[in-house]
Amino acid sequence: MRLTSLAAVLMAIASVPVAAQLSSAETAMTKTIDAEQDRTIRFLETMVNQNSGTLNLQGVEAVGKMVRAELEPLGFDVKWIPLPETGRAGHIFATHKGSGRGKKMVLIAHLDTVFEPDSPFQTFKREGDRAIGPGVGDDKGGIAIIVAALRAMHQAGTLKDADIVVALTGDEERPGSPIDKARADLIAAGKWADVALEFEGLATDGGKDFATIARRSSTSWTLKTTGRTGHSSGVFGEGLGFGAIYEMARILDAFREELREPNLTYNVGVIGGGTPAAIDEQGLKIAASGKTNIVAETAIARGDLRSLTDEQDARARAKMQAIVAKHLPGTGAELTFAEDGYPPMAPTDGNRALLATLNRVNRDMGLPEMAEWDPAKRGAADISFVAKDTDGLAGMGPAGEKSHAPGESVDLPSIARQAKRAAILMSRLAQEPAR
């Protein structure tokens, strides 16, 4: 071998993470996950081929039954929690009682998808190392990882001492109302747990895996402006003022100019104005009419607000209300926030300590360490409801593309990789003293 070639080989070896010795149980878990990868993919295919759009209540419950069949043989007490009062199917909560000495863990994923029965995108298809299908990544791939990891722990004997609640909501994509009822069981599980692991999609970029220690909130708002209507020849004058649409434009442009700060966004999703204008009960459609020579009487807009912390959220809301209060002559405005939003999962020292534990797992597996993912690049998720009560890591699910869109896909090798990380992480956490 030439010297230059030898040097290149040595440099390549030096760049690979050095793997510490995994325990015999941890090695056994990685082998089990590899050996059962085809079984895991078949389970994923079965789930994907059962439509479970949020409003398909029977379909959501059917996927819950599939998961029950996987968890009960592992020693989990599985309960279906129906929630007809919220307009949704319900949730699966499965409890495994361990020694009571290690860290208590809640594993979070969801049974539902954005694809209702009328969607043309309905079936699972495999193309080599990629699978395509509705919810294949979001979040049935996450459920498959949970089951694969727990099966490996069970076979290796590390599940025996682990105190775990598997919380699979049936309405993550379109939460039921009231939200406090829809998430009551999850919030209770968060208060019980020392650690929350959420199995939505893995963040990746440039071939690298990233860890999610923070997610932003998601809250909707409605803005209604009013004006004095009349002949447009009097617009801007003392008698009529500026009208509802100019007042709406003033407010929204001020939001754009004055609310800029990192990790804060405020989208306008729908808008309409005229004489008259009204919004439907779902807050999705605005009916408006008017003439060019009539000053607009009403304008309506709806959007969302996303923030990283409670403090940022409160600050943004106060600024928005202050902007709204500065009315143009002859106009009025009212801004209201929905009560069923998702809270933020703020970046905390506890979350970063949990990431450090995961990175020790990565080193021992011979994988690169995972850096923190930019929270502005992630949407809201159910882990946010437990974030104030327990340390957490999100994004423990598979890597994939086109989430929420026809052609949604998942990288199949990432399922095994994530299941190994999760199995080893959970096995180690089960041996750490509870708080």
Automatic annotation (TrEMBL):
Listed GO MF terms: carboxypeptidase activity; metal ion binding
Statement: the UniProt record of this protein carries the keyword Membrane: no
Keywords annotated in UniProt: Carboxypeptidase, Hydrolase, Metal-binding, Protease, Signal
Range of residues in the leader sequence: 1-20
Pfam families, per database record: M20_dimer (PF07687), Peptidase_M20 (PF01546)
Domain Peptidase M20 dimerisation positions: 213-330
Name this polypeptide is given: Glutamate carboxypeptidase
